[in-house]
Design goal:
Blueprint lengths: L1 E6 L7 H15 L3 E6 L2 H10 L6 E2 L2 E2 L3 H25 L3 E6 L6 E5 L8 E6 L1 H9 L2 E6 L1 E3 L5 E3 L2 H12 L3 E6 L11 E2 L1 E2 L1 H9 L5 H12 L7 E6 L5 H6 L6 E3 L9 E2 L1
Parallel strand pairs: 1-2, 1-11, 2-8, 5-8, 11-14, 13-15
Antiparallel strand pairs: 3-4, 6-7, 9-10, 12-16, 14-15
Helix pairs in contact: 1-3, 2-3, 4-5
Length: 265
């Protein structure tokens, strides 16, 4: 099975969190083909604040001028990426850190001139990911992409994960975040959602902001009828192994409606 796991940056802030995630990634990579994609927005904000650079967001996306893209590259593709790679190495697997810029793994184009160097991910090179995985490496990808002119773009990590999942042909896309799943209007967690149900959640305003963006990305990630996308809390003990064992954690998204779709109370 090909599994792509997207890690929210908040799960990687401290050493214990990285060690926990790395242990799970290492265990999975010994049984399945695995690729990980990560963010690092909070760490980037802290880095910029320490240097007196304020962060401005439009529609949940960080406006990225030259100073910001330099920070994103240093923090997300630098320290956050290498700290996670080091933790994976310590857990016993051959973690290999890279970004979309490396080998043009993921190409990007400017999303909106008003946002500066914020990119929309395009094609991801599944062949390169296959080469690395088949050689025994665990690719750990920072959400930074580029183009053939040498421009570097800040890319939303959810969108980056979907691009890599599609290019690689992942069977399962697991979004590990800091919430337990997709909430219904009454606060309960949906155990299963289909794209048409997601559309209604967005139209009604129940899903908005970061969750709306995540759900829109998840729908794009359903690249085959067999593909599954799961949104779950990365703070759950052994969440990756439990999801793979079939335990009902978080919200499972598939192309088809499920007979028990709805909130879990």
């Amino acid at each position: 099975m090909k599994i792509l796991i997207k890690l929210g940056g908040t799960l990687l802030e401290d050493e214990d969190g990285r060690r926990n995630i790395a242990r799970q990634l290492s265990a999975i990579s010994k049984e399945h083909s695995l690729v990980a994609v990560h963010g690092g927005g909070k760490q980037t904000t802290q880095f910029l604040n320490e240097r007196g650079v304020s962060s401005r967001f439009v529609g949940g996306l960080r406006v990225s001028d030259g100073a910001v893209i330099d920070a994103v590259t240093k923090v997300i593709a630098g320290s956050v990426n290498k700290q996670l790679v080091a933790a994976v190495l310590a857990a016993g697997s051959k973690g290999l850190g890279l970004s979309g810029v490396d080998g043009l793994l993921t190409t990007a184009e400017q999303l909106n001139p008003e946002l500066g160097f914020v990119g929309r991910p395009g094609r991801s090179d599944g062949h390169l990911l296959n080469l690395l995985v088949e050689a025994g490496y665990l690719p750990i990808i920072a959400c930074v992409a580029g183009d053939e002119n040498g421009t570097i773009y800040n890319v939303n990590a959810d969108s980056m994960a979907v691009s890599c999942a599609i290019g690689w042909g992942a069977d399962l896309l697991l979004f590990l975040t800091d919430v337990n799943g997709v909430r219904a209007e009454d606060g309960s967690i949906y155990s299963h959602l289909a794209p048409e149900e997601i559309g209604e959640l967005i139209r009604s305003g129940v899903a908005h902001g970061g969750m709306q963006a995540k759900l829109e990305a998840a729908c794009l990630g359903l690249c085959t009828p067999q593909t599954e996308v799961i949104i779950a809390s990365g703070h759950e003990d052994d969440v990756c192994q439990r999801v793979l064992a079939g335990e009902s954690l978080g919200t499972r998204i598939t192309a088809q409606q499920h007979s028990v779709s709805g909130g879990v109370r």
